[in-house]
Structure formats: C-alpha cells, structure tokens
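In practice, a research group might receive sequence data for several interacting partners and want a quick structural hypothesis before committing to experiments. The following worked case mirrors that situation: the sequences arrive first, and a predicted assembly follows.
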Amino acid sequence: MKLKFKNLSDDLQKVRDTAPLVHNITNYVVMNNTANALLSIGASPVMAHAAEEVAEMVTLASALVINIGTLSKEWISGMAIAMAAAHEKGIPIIFDPVGAGATEFRTRTCLSLLERAAPAVIRGNASEVMALAGDCVQTKGVDSSAAASDAESAALALAKKYDCVVCVSGAIDLITDGRQTMRVRNGHALMPKVTGLGCTATALIGAFCAVNKDILVATSHAMMVMGICGELAAAQATGPGSFQVHLIDAFYNLNAEQVEAHWLDPEAK
Amino acid sequence: MKLKFKNLSDDLQKVRDTAPLVHNITNYVVMNNTANALLSIGASPVMAHAAEEVAEMVTLASALVINIGTLSKEWISGMAIAMAAAHEKGIPIIFDPVGAGATEFRTRTCLSLLERAAPAVIRGNASEVMALAGDCVQTKGVDSSAAASDAESAALALAKKYDCVVCVSGAIDLITDGRQTMRVRNGHALMPKVTGLGCTATALIGAFCAVNKDILVATSHAMMVMGICGELAAAQATGPGSFQVHLIDAFYNLNAEQVEAHWLDPEAK
Amino acid sequence: MKLKFKNLSDDLQKVRDTAPLVHNITNYVVMNNTANALLSIGASPVMAHAAEEVAEMVTLASALVINIGTLSKEWISGMAIAMAAAHEKGIPIIFDPVGAGATEFRTRTCLSLLERAAPAVIRGNASEVMALAGDCVQTKGVDSSAAASDAESAALALAKKYDCVVCVSGAIDLITDGRQTMRVRNGHALMPKVTGLGCTATALIGAFCAVNKDILVATSHAMMVMGICGELAAAQATGPGSFQVHLIDAFYNLNAEQVEAHWLDPEAK
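A structural hypothesis for the assembly, expressed as tokens:
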C-alpha cells in the first residue's frame, strides 16, 4: 500500500465538510487540548462520560475515543457502556491505553475493556503497547521506556488478537493491521515535551476514521497530520508553550500545499 | 432600553475594583480557561463542587456559575445544594445547560435543577435553549444545530417560566427577560472554533451580575465584552490556538477606548 | 545559609538529566499546566488519583505532589493511600492546601491528611498557611487575603509541627524549615493573574526535591525558578494569556546565564 498526499488532503476536506461528531471519554489533563485539536481540524468534539448518557451520546457520533489517562473506577462503567453501544452500531472505537504497564490497575482495565468490544484502533506508546501484549516492560508513569520499533512484534500480536489497527507513536510512528505496516516519519522533537500530544493523535485518528472506512489509511493520515502540523508548529515555536498554540493554529490552517511540501513517504512493507 | 458604552466601562471598572468572587461548578474541559477569563477580566474565580463544601463556599461568593458540560451523577447533588444556598442568600445563579437536548440525562437534569432554584440567567446555544423549552430539536453533541434567532420564542418562554434572563449565544446573541430583547452583534467567526467560549461567556456574565443588579444589562455587558474582546483577539490571531491566548490578554487589557471603538449598538425591541 | 546560582543551575541540570517522575494528585483546573510545567523543566509528570493504583504508581516516582484544589470525597482516599505509600518509601511529599480556610471541609481534610503522613514541604498562600496553623483568617475562595509576611509565625509553627519546610508564596516568597527562613524576591505582578501558578510552583518543588535532598534549598531553588521564569515571561507577554505561554517556554529554555542575570540574593536569616 502506498499513501498519497492527495488522498490525505481529500480526507482532511471531508472532515471539514462534514464536521463529524467525535465522542471522547478521555482524561482530565488533555480534555481542553483534545477538544481544541478536533475543532481546529474541522471535527466536532463532545466529552461525556456518565454511564447514564454515554450510550445515547455515542449513537450521535461518528467515532468514539476512549482514553484511560486519569482512570478511576467510576469512569470504567461509562467506558464499557459506550464501547458496547459503539460496537453494536458499527461506530469505530479508538482506544488509548495511557499508562498501561505502569500499574496493574491500568493494564487490567484495558484488557477488560478490550475484551468487551474490539476497537478499530489502539494507539499508544511503545511501553503501553508492549504491556497490552503481555510483554514484560515497565512504563515510566505515562512516558514510554522503549522506542516504537521495540514494540513491533507486540503491535503485530495485538493487531491480530483484536483484528484492529495498532499505532505505536514515537519518533517514527508504526501503524499496522497485522498484515501491512506503515512507518510515519513526520514529527518534531518538541512533541514529547508537550503533555498529551499522544492523546491528541488518538482524537485525530477518531476524526479521520469518521470519514474513511479504511482504518489503516485513516490512522496513517491522522498520524501524518500530527507530524506535519508538528513540523509547522515547531518552525514558529520558541518552546513547548508556544508549540502547543502554533499546533492548534496549524491544524486549523493546514492545506494541501503544506501537506505536499512536508510529505515524507511512509515506508510500507 | 438602550445600552451605553460608558455604563459598560463603569461595570468593567467595578469588576476590577471589587474582584468579586465567582463560584463555578463547571466542566472539566473549560475549568482552566474559565478561571483565566475571570482573573483576566478582574474577578476572582473559585472552582468547588463537593456536596460537603459548596453551601459554605457559595456564601462567600458574589455569583454562582453552574455548567453541566461534563455531567455526572456525583456532581448533581453539589450543584443542587449550591443553587439552593445561592437562592436563599440572593446570590445570582448563572446556568449553562451544555448539551441539553443531546441526551435525555442532560435535559432532565437541567429541568430538575432549574425547578429547585430559579437562576438569574440561563445562557446556552440555540439548540440547548430550545431543548429546555421543550422544543423538538437535536443538539449535535454540544454544538448548536440552529441559529440564535430560531430560539427566540423558546427564549421568551423560558424567561417567563423562570422569571429570568435568557441569553442565546450565536453569531448574533439574543438576550431577553421576556419583555425586552437585546441583540448583541459583536464577535468573530473564530469564536466557535475555540472550545468552551460559550462557557467563558457564562462565567463573565457571573462577574458582571456580581456588580450590576440589572441582570438584563449585566448580561448584555458581559456578552459585549466577549464580542469586543473576540474582535480584538481575532485581529492578532492566526488560528484558534493563538486566538485563545489573545482573548485572555484582551480581557486583561480592555479599556474604555476599545469599548467605544468597537461599540455596535445592540438592537433592542 | 546562602543560596548560590551555581547550585541552582546544577539542580536544574540534574532535573533535565534524570527526568524524575513526579506523581501528581492535583486539581482539574491546573492538571494540564502542571504537566506542561514539569515536562518543560525536564521532569516527567504523571497524574493518577485512583485508590486502586496510587500506591503502585507512587513507588515509581521520585516525588509526590498532593493538591486539594478541586477536592471531593472520592479523591481523599487516593490522596491518603498515596501519601502513606510515599512516606513508607521515603519519597518526598509536597502538599498544596488550596483553599484551606475557605471552607471547613478543606481545612479539615488538610489537617487529616497531614496527620497521616508528614510532608517534606507545604506550599500555600498566606491565608492557607494561616488556616492550617489555626489562625483565624478567611480565605477568599482560593486567593489569599493576606501577604506572605503576615503568615510568618504561622509558617514557623507549621514547620515545627510537621518537621517540614513551609513555603508561603506571595510577592516575596517566605520559605522556612522552622530554623532558617529564606525570602525569594523574584517574580512578577502578572503571576497572580494566571490561574494555578501556585500549583505550578508546588509541582516544581516536587521536581527539585527529587534531585536535592536538602529540602529547604530545593524548595528555594524551585521558587527562584518560578520567579526568574516569571520575569522572563513577563518581558515577552502582553497579558496573562501570553504570559502563561511564555512561562512554559521559559522553563524549557532556562539556562545558567539567565539564572545569573536575574539572581536576587534571597535574604536569609
């Protein structure tokens, strides 16, 4: 498979034309940034976690983003109900196992949620993906202690187990459906210095999966948008604070010319 | 009634001189922005939601802002207790029914809270106001699927039902007490591209109601401040990320000259 | 005792070289800013509050930050468990009693938590520190109604009671272990106009206590970094919105030359 910048630009235009509703059950740290990233790229975010309403809310949505970054018992039932409702309606679920491997509670909760409803995409860092695959690895809080390439076999195993796309983000993002594997090389060294950009990536994958049923391609497009906008933001930034501001602006202003100019062919094998 | 920019500037000065405490029970997405908007305009924000303390906290405050944006069962009792305490003490309640109409849980919770203690102001988008008035409308997550003008009869009905001011924000904001209706035309197209600026407006209404007992005027002043500062921010911004930053700066720096220069007479009828 | 800018720069370098994990149980308003401040200074933040995982998470960490800014019953047990685990492992606890004195619930919760596990550092504003020491003072929401110097005897009393360092932030920060008292004069008038910079200070104290076992010195270094970066940010800012952005950039870019150029000898007695 070969990605083409024309297709990415077309998907971006579809997001802007249709403003798909992306339902997020995510962590406290990133809610504001996630919502702003989705709005800026052209999607329509909603944050709702109560067990009483998530099934109703998710049926309005075109994608469901589940992110366990500030997990607590009270939120798990809302996540489980939303995932079941999304699964039943065929709404793609994007799952972000923040901090899996750091504590038994996180790893166990992820595995339990994934049993209930298979996601379209799992996006995590290398440590998180390895933890879900059962590899012995210690996540340092929510930061990875391994490179994305270290998690390749774990990613392949997870992709096969859940019949989903697995995206391991890192300096080079690895995206696989268990058969084909893409490597996205766009991005910038400032990105891990801003909290929650992995969570932003997960949310953008939701927006792109809402407009493109080829989940491997949609995920790759979202990760390229992250990387390209990261490069655009870094060119303006003087540190992680201004980077975050410019990144949101970059999502909003991203056009086909910028996509073409920053295009680095994702290696595929 | 005719608004005058001199009166708006006087109210702004009162906010800065007295730094009224505005007690917020609001959603996770906007807490940081809301607090910063209140601080920048000159008020003093506090966020507290626990049933154990809200009655005590609200008696220190000059306004209570209730916003159901990330509603859960656990928060409803805190909201109800705070509203009852505010009502008893004569502290104005500003109510933001985020996402009413999107789910039955939100609509029902709003109506139940409003039954317990009438607010001074309800501020929502057109879909939310129509949902509260019992109109058949589907809110798309938390974004309106209708223009403010579509909600005029719903706003009038709500204003009469709760004997309060209703503010429907949109490209043209509609503000009514059921007898007089103001239309505020200030603002900028980037504003709906930043998450939670409606919530920011609700919080600013709290600050202005804290210093002006004429709730229709105070609400109109707050919405004009939002609109004028939005115009000032847009003149500096290159997208929604930088817009949010400049908006906070604009609140902080807003002066009488800027108010006069950006004044668009609100139509009243 | 005399602080030296060389030692501060060395501690800063140690933070960057070792990226200590700082475990935060903090409030919703500041989570994003706190995480970004820690990342920018070179530390590695994690936010986790669930009773099910905090004991496991804190054992991975080099410091524990407890901040009661948006307190609720459900969070108290997580705080208590984390503090007990940190205490047992000798991990320094930095305690931020946000809004103590504003409500009985906050004051009582703080005192109860402090009974269970003595912190390395308590950092609050003057009202909060006075409230914990049992002085009759009314905190206005979360803002101080007193100057740091008013809280000196309260700070000394608390430092002796819990055998810890107490940091009272204000225009001049007062830092005492009950024997020696430092006064940090760096900072800028815009800082109280940005929400949660006290919370940011608390988190940075965590990062510096993670690399320097002399808690009085580590706390003073963190407060000087806050003050110096505040001055650097203010030189670029046009209001509180841009100040916050530049502050994060300043943390990231801070170097020995800037520390030396902005150095104001903390008075010690």
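Before designing any experiment, note the following. The CA atoms of residues 13 and 42 of chain B lie 9 Å apart. The beta strands of chain B are 21-25, 44-47, 63-67, 93-96, 121-124, 165-168, 173-176, 181-184, 267-268.
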